[in-house]
Write a structure and sequence with these properties.
Blueprint (H helix, E strand, L loop, with lengths): L1 H34 L14 E6 L7 H20 L8 E6 L5 H14 L5 E3 L3 H13 L4 E3 L7 E2 L3 E3 L8 H9 L8 E7 L2 H16 L7 E6 L7 H11 L4 E6 L5 H10 L9 E3 L4 H4 L11 E4 L8 H16 L12 H20 L4 H8 L3 E4 L2 E5 L6 E2 L3 E5 L5 E6 L28 E2 L1
Parallel strand pairs: 1-2, 1-3, 3-4, 4-6, 7-8, 7-9, 9-10, 10-11
Antiparallel strand pairs: 5-17, 11-15, 12-13, 13-14, 15-16
Length: 442
């Protein structure tokens, strides 16, 4: 009996030890899982995808421009996943619709960063939407890839600006219009939508024109609200302004207001030969919704056009058309590419290259990995500035053709380095400190 009691005690002891061992294994397993999570809370397990956010208006006045940016981000993600993903993980898009509502942009940005736990966000079009989300990204250390040309005067360590700065679009376009090659124009009607980008862009343009000797009486500024539809009175004023010759329009009208503006321009007998429009927010995608009969000959300034001839661009254009057709997207194989579409696509691949270079999805490791990074985009080789979060890229002037495409009639030789702060309105300012984690914005 004594031997039996000892054996029972021994067995009970073994049971307790085993239970403790299982508990220890469980705790270690949980600790290892927590250890393998990034600062954003994304599990580092091979079977779980890495999530990125898409923050573009799929409804409202800006949907005419932004829907295609959502589409091309999805295409880039599909390509990346088919080639093996990023650091062995598939990429998953988390798509939200801020519906052209600037306050809603901030709410949706919070949803992506705090609830969806995305590693990066690709989104925004208007500067007012970007300004709306900026505190969200800076306050939560998120990373936004912004793909649209803008007014500059801003640098944030939490934003990667793949669109053009003023010296990569606004200033070259104005210089071209003033040149003999561009027509030698001496009067400028600055017409835009009433928000941050047009007002700041026109401040820069006006300062440039005055510095070049254009009399102030030869410069007129006017603004209309988003979704403005009645341009009869404004075009009448443009017609009167242009009556003496050598006048042009520098247009920062955004969204669906471009459709009635160009239509009314033609209705009142104005044309590219009598008063050309140089647009900063009209590209191939917007032209799909417009009657190109009265657009031919007008101009736009961008860094990419679908008509660019290169193997990379041919593949990009064909792939986008095929992607839209395969997924039953509106327009299907008749869809077009344009400048913001190109840079939205480029942004995803820059993020991929930076993640692989850093060996991490963490924002604080991905950001410095971007500095100096090169990518052979559909618009040619581009390079991320080593200090200021913007891309060096070429500048091109295009003339609208009857088929809604552009003839490139002028372009720079090589890449133009980005200058976010204009020498005409903010001399001496730079964004070089952003690479060290600083923020410098208006």
């Amino acid at each position: 009996m004594k031997i039996i009691k000892i054996s029972t005690y021994f067995l009970k002891s073994i049971g307790v030890i085993a239970a403790m061992a299982l508990l220890l294994i469980s705790c270690n397993s949980k600790a290892e899982k927590n250890k393998n999570e990034t600062s954003e809370g994304t599990p580092q397990t091979s079977e779980d995808p890495i999530k990125i956010g898409v923050l573009h208006s799929l409804s409202g006045t800006m949907a005419i421009s932004e829907v295609s940016l959502k589409d091309v981000v999805e295409m880039a993600v599909e390509e990346i996943n088919e080639s093996g993903g990023v650091l062995g993980k598939k990429v998953k898009t988390e798509i939200v619709d801020p519906a052209s509502d600037w306050d809603l942009f901030a709410e949706k940005a919070k949803e992506l960063l705090l609830e969806k736990k995305v590693a990066a966000v690709f989104g925004c079009w208007t500067s007012v939407s970007r300004k709306s989300v900026l505190p969200v990204f800076e306050g939560n250390n998120g990373l936004l890839f912004y793909p649209v040309q803008y007014e500059g005067e801003e640098c944030s360590k939490n934003v990667i600006y793949t669109g053009a700065t003023p010296n990569q679009q606004l200033i070259p376009a104005a210089e071209y219009m003033m040149s003999e090659e561009g027509g030698g124009y001496k009067k400028f009607y600055l017409l835009g939508t009433d928000y941050v980008f047009p007002r700041t862009a026109n401040k820069i343009l006006k300062a440039f024109l005055l510095a070049k000797g254009v009399p102030e009486k030869n410069i007129i500024e006017e603004y209309t609200p988003f979704h403005h539809q009645d341009y009869q009175t404004i075009v009448s004023k443009v017609k009167k302004f242009a009556a003496g010759g050598k006048a042009c329009v520098l247009s920062t009208i955004n969204g669906d207001s471009n459709v009635p503006f160009y239509k009314e321009f033609a209705n009142q007998g104005l044309s590219a030969s009598s008063c050309p429009i140089m647009a900063f927010s009209v590209a191939e995608d917007e032209l799909r919704a417009m009657d190109t009969e009265f657009l031919a000959g007008h101009l736009a300034a961008w860094n990419y056009y679908q008509s660019a001839v290169s193997p990379e661009n041919t593949e990009f254009v064909n792939s986008f058309k095929a992607f839209c057709a395969k997924n039953g997207l509106p327009g299907g194989k008749d869809r077009v590419t344009d400048d913001p579409i190109c840079w939205a696509y480029t942004g995803v691949y820059l993020w991929k290259k930076a993640v692989e270079k850093a060996g991490s999805y963490e924002v604080d490791k991905v950001r410095p990995a971007l500095y100096g990074l090169e990518f052979n985009s559909p618009g040619g080789m581009v390079k991320m500035d080593p200090k200021n979060h913007h891309l060096a890229k070429p500048v091109k002037i295009g003339e609208i053709k009857m088929d809604g495409q552009f003839d490139v009639i002028w372009q720079t030789e090589g890449l133009v380095d980005p200058q976010p702060w204009s020498e005409y309105t903010s001399p001496g300012k730079s964004c070089d400190h952003v690479a060290h984690g600083g923020t410098y914005s208006i």
